[in-house]
Each structure stands twice: as structure tokens, then as C-alpha cells.
Design brief:
About 50% of the residues lie in helices and about 15% in strands. The protein has about 375 residues and is of the alpha+beta class. The chain has three domains: about 5-115, Orthogonal Bundle (Butyryl-Coa Dehydrogenase, subunit A, domain 1); about 120-230, Butyryl-CoA Dehydrogenase, subunit A, domain 2 (Beta Barrel), CATH 2.40.110.10; about 230-380, Butyryl-CoA Dehydrogenase, subunit A, domain 3 (Up-down Bundle), CATH 1.20.140.10. The longest helix has about 35 residues, at about 230-265.
Amino acid sequence: MDAETFEILRGAVRRFVEERLIPSEDRVEAEDAVPEEIIAEMRGQGLFGISIPVEYGGLGLTMSEEAGIVRELGRASLAFRSVIGTTVGIGSQGIVIDGTEEQKELWLPRLASGEVIASFALTEPGAGSDAASLRTTAVRQGDTYRLNGVKRYITNAPRAGVFTVMARSDPDKKGASGISAFIVPAGTPGLSLGKPERKMGQRGTVLTDVVFDDCIVPASSIIGGIPGMGFKTAMKVLDRGRIHLSALASGMSDRLIDESVRYATQRKQFGQAIGEFQLIQGMLADSRTESFASRVMVEDVARRYDAGELVSNDVACTKYFATEAVGRIADRAVQIHGGAGYMNATKVERFYRDVRVLRIYEGTSQIQQLIIARGLLRSAAGCD
């Protein structure tokens, strides 16, 4: 997309956030649901297809462009971005990167339009960060596979029209090598959902368990048609997903700072605005500094990703820093608001709860630390 067209798109998304999403935040909080008319407008803006190639009906944004759009969306409640998040990420990108042409033609246009929402089913009761230990099985029976197992905390499962499901298709292979990625349409017999989970934050985001009980799918539903490649497919899209979440954290940081500055200029104590006190100024300065650092890191690593550089280690640095930073910024925002910041009626209280999950999504902060440290040690040993 040329620069002028992209700026028009970003401007439209910014207005959508300011005029539609932010004014709807209280409703989402009260109803624990994103209004259907908002989701329809997101479809109309093409937001479900930002990462899907143009030839399949998407906008075909680069990683840098996607990060710019996500940063705008991050200025509103995270539940809004969550509506498109699983489709923009692994729900479509596994098919984009490794899918057969038939799979691409069948699913990508429907995902890009938002006609179908995708959900990614990897996490299990006993498998989270250690994804290679998953227990969901896929037993080959002629031209079909029989899936059995439980997936946990699956975002957008109740909305999903299709699931990308990671299952162990070769029990003789331990770890990641025996895992395949399956495309499973919602409504397939043997697929059912658990009850909606109650969460610390992000009201309006929906997630449940997904249960597979003798769920039979054709062998052709394996992404790429090659068994045992599912974990590798997931790893290929992790860098993009982590940059996406870092941009989201950056946008949320901007919103929290805006809320903090607004309050600091309006709230008076001891006869003056609290923003006149140096200790408040110190918190604002720290937050702005960390927000700026996050944005610069996201922009740099996204540009290098687009250029084809191997940036996994720096992506881990960016995801680690940006998501930890937004947690600190949210904490300062509550502190600046004082007692009001602890009340559910204020936006910063909600965002304080919402941003906590960003340090868990797409690999915990501790996983990012391991990636960073191991990369350094490999370099020191001359292995890179």
C-alpha cells in the first residue's frame, strides 16, 4: 500500500476509535460484550483482513503498517482489538504462510471480509508455554483424522466460524515434531464449547474451552497437507504476532498517558492542579519515556521484519519491554488518579486490569527472557 493510501486508512481508523470505540467502552464494560453493530463496522473497514494478501480479499498490510493500525486500535478498550486479533494473527497467517492453494482460496477471502472469524486452539489444561507437550490427539483413519482432547482459554471460540487446532498426529514422535495444524469448521460433529470464562479484565472479550470428542475431519484439513508441520507453522507466525501485541501495548500506553495528563491538569489539591507537583511530573515523565521507547522499538523491529531480516531475538526484546512497560504505565496512571483510580467508573482502573494479560499472550515475559538470553549465549558461543 502506498504511503498516501495508508495514511488515509490510518486516519479513518483513528476517527473510528475516537468516534465509535471509545464512546462505546462503558457499554462494553456493562454488557460484557462488543456490540454487534461495532463488529459490523469493523468488517466494513476491512479490519479483519489487514494481514491477508490483497489477492485473497485482504488489505495486505506490511508488518509496519499493521503495527500502525494496531497502535491506533490500542487506544480503545482491548476488547475491540480482540474481536479481530485471532483472525488477523494465527487464524489466517498459518494458512497464508503454509496453506495449500485450495485452503487459501476457501478460507482467506471469508476471513478477510469478517464473514468468518478464526480462533486458534493450542493451549490445553496441561500445555501452555510448553506447547510441545500438548495431549490432544489426531488419529489417522483412512482419509480422515479423529480428534480428541480439550483446549483451554480459547479467545473468540464462541464467535469463531473456524478453528486452527494443534493436535498430536504422530504419537511415536515426542515434542513438537509429531504435531499437525488442522482447519476445523465450527459446527463439526464432536466439537463443543465449554462455559464462558470470567476474567480479571477485558470485559467483552469472549473465551471458552473447546472440546473435541471423536471429532472427525478430512486429512485435507491439515494446513499445507503435510502432517507433523503444525508446530513449525505456529513458530513462523510468532514474530508477527509478538510485534502486533507490542504495537497494541504501545497504543494502550498512549491512552493511559492521555488519561493521566488530563486528570493531572484538572484535579486540584492544596490549591493547585496536581500536575504542578514534581512527584506527579516524575511519574508522567517516566511513563512518556517508556511509551516512546516502546514505539521506537516496535517501529524499528517491524521495519526490519519487513526487510526480511532475522529479528526473532529483537522481537522478543520488544514484546518483553513493551508489555512490561504498559503495566508500569497503567500502575502509575492509577496512582496519579489516587482514590478515583481504584474505582471501576474510571477508565484507568479498567485498563489496569486489561493490560495485565499482555505479559502472558504470545509467550509470557519469562519466555521472552529465555529467548533473549539464549540468543546472547548462542552468539557468544559462535553458533549464530
